[in-house]
Design goal:
Blueprint: H1 7-15, H2 21-40, H3 45-48, H4 50-54, H5 58-65, H6 83-90, H7 99-117, H8 122-127, H9 130-146, H10 151-162, H11 178-198, H12 214-218, H13 248-259, E1 267-271, H14 273-279, H15 287-291, H16 294-302, H17 314-319, H18 321-324, E2 327-331, H19 333-338, E3 345-347, E4 350-352, H20 365-378, H21 383-395, H22 399-410
Parallel strand pairs: 1-2
Antiparallel strand pairs: 1-3, 3-4
Amino acid sequence: MKNPISLTEQLAKHLMRPVDDATRARARLHLLDWLACVAGARPDPKQSTSLSALSDHSLIRASWLGNVLEMDDIHRTAILHPGPAIWPITMRKFWAKTFDAQLDAGIRGYEAMIAIGETFDASHYAHFHNTSTAGVFGAAATGANLLACNAHQTANALGFAGSVSGGLWQMRHEGSDAKQWHLLNILQTGENAARSAGAHFEAPKQILEGPQGLYAATCREPKPMTFPDQWRIHEVSFKPWAACRHAHPVIDCALELRAAGKLQPPFVVETYADAINFCDKSNPQTQVEAKFSLQHAVAVIADGRDATPADFTQDAISALAQLRAQVTVSEAPEITARYPAHFGARLNGLELIDCRGDPERPVGETEIIAKMHMLAHWGGLPAEEADRAVELALHGDDAGAIITLLDDWLK
């Protein structure tokens, strides 16, 4: 009896459908958002030392930097960051095609990464970094599309990538660089998987649902994979503030209260369980810990700041200690029940169900351009470079020009 069609085969077929102009326009915004994150991360000490030793290729270095500031785009129900996983492989210049074709490949990469990430359960997310475990699938799908692979070959690319999928959250507890290193692994694994599939090597097709597949190894109750008509990139949220997304709901509440003249201590934060698991840090010691601190997030806004990268530096950590000490944090079960479809919080009685940047409370081209300028300035680039990035991402038709831009930024 013939085996039933596998999930990777179904997904590969789903990826073959055409891309519309509105979705390409959306993709250009996400490309610009990623470039902004790279620009802002240029002062990172790894950029001038370790990354230069690692590679002289700007896309390799950009794949690392795109996540450093914690401002990369995010899909809520998959709980992952597609931008820094997908755009570096999309822009590989030796796969030069029309710019629309490269945008389409990126859109399909977002789709594959999110479609698989949405099937992971809470047990998976408790131990595994979804951006990493699902990201290799997205990069493989992107590469396969750039190589003009058919559905069978694309399923093979997904199978190869899935056979080495991984990425453990232990990195959160040790102040390591593993989160960014995962992005390098995504880029290299996705490229190798696509090239192998394009060369007609065969991969396991039931790498997700098979008896010794990814679900059996990492999930208790994997969710069904769905195949909607609309491309999932439209569901992806943008991040306005330089902190972990789990801290954004309370930042949003604090800004609303501050605007109304009602942000006064003591500060009582109620939010969902994962926000507390990841971001309950009353005494952060490093910039990374500050970005993962609900207490620091509230203190930043209470101090009149705007949650830009400058507000999570060592100087800011020291300056805001007294305000952080006035923040208490607890779980609100009803907010947890709405998560991850809705990232919400309550601060001093004010509750917001969704965040600024989510599809329900969208930001548009004006806000993403402003983010590009803000992060370019933080990264030490002149305004002309932000304008250059805006023009290339939103109106250009040459991926090679984007590579040149990154070469100039990261040399």
